[in-house]
Amino acid sequence: MYSAVVLDSTSRYRLQDRFMEFLRINHFGFRVVIQDWKFICHHMTMNFGDVPDRDFRSEEEDLPITLTTDAFGFYRNQVCAVRINDFRALSSNETPHITVALNKHGKPVQSNLIEDWKPFRKMELMGTIQIID
Question: Which of 28, 56, 94, 96 could potentially form a cystine with 51 if both were Cys, beta carbons 3.0 to 4.6 Å apart?
Answer without folding.
Answer: 56
